[in-house]
Amino acid sequence: MQVHEEIFKRRSEGGGSIEIICGSMFSGKTEELMRRLKRARIARLSIEIFSPKADTRYSENALVSHNANSISSMQVSKASAILAPGNQVQVVGIDEAQFFDDELPAICNALANNGVRVIVAGLDMDFQGNPFGPMPALMAIAESVTKLHAVCVVCGNPALYSYRLVNNNGQILLGEKESYEPRCRLCYGL
Ligand code: ZN
């Protein structure tokens, strides 16, 4: 049994928890978040999903992964807005967590301490290979951390870096295949 499924079982006994799904772009983070949320929905748990307003690549109210499966979500401009889900919410999903402010770890802790199962997906590193936003702090306080890998487009090995193809040094540059490609450690340094 995988760690997060054990947590899932404990949740039904009343305890909250934090689960992190991290990795590079194109590693399937959002798909994994959606897989867990769909299972929670089948278990008839009440769910709320949040994403940061900064991520405007797709539709306003849908959590969209690259394979275009979607679950409706709420876009919020700051982490503290996540603290006010409905009273009966049992599972909170958070996507693109790297774009949230530094209050997010405390917000997730508060939810988990109140019995909520919190599932967070986000980029662990920016395009320069540095820890991204609140992700390292979240990973430190979580019950479980799942690190996913994409496939290196140069050599085919597991990829952990999001290599930026365009010449722009800002930490946030929204884009898909035209702006980034997944690369392994060796090919990232080429
Ligand atoms: Zn490679």
Describe this structure in words.
The chain is of the alpha/beta class and about 190 residues long. It has one domain (about 1-150): P-loop containing nucleotide triphosphate hydrolases (Rossmann fold, 3-Layer(aba) Sandwich), CATH 3.40.50. It is built from five helices and twelve strands. A six-stranded parallel beta sheet has the order 5-2-6-7-1-8, sandwiched between helices. It has a two-stranded antiparallel sheet with strand order 3-4. Strands 9-10 form a two-stranded antiparallel sheet. Strand 6 (about 90-95), helix 3 (about 105-115) and strand 7 (about 115-125) form a beta-alpha-beta unit. The N and C termini lie far apart (about 40 Å). It binds zinc ion (ZN). Zinc ion binds near residues 152, 155, 186 and 187. Zinc ion binds next to helix 5.
The SSE string, one letter per element, is HEHEEEEEHEHEEEEEH
Alpha carbon gap, first and last residue: 39 Å
Which strand-content bin applies to the residues? 25-35%
Number of helices: 5
Low-pLDDT ranges: none
Count of individual domains: 1
Largest sheet: 6 strands, parallel
Q: What name goes with the CATH superfamily?
A: P-loop containing nucleotide triphosphate hydrolases
What is the radius of gyration computed over CA atoms, rounded to a whole number of angstroms? 16 Å
Query: What shape does the CA trace take?
Result: globular
Structural class: alpha/beta
Bin the helical content: 10-25%
Mean of pLDDT: 86
CATH class value: Alpha Beta
Going across the major beta sheet, what is the strand order?
A: 5-2-6-7-1-8
What is the count of β-strands? 12
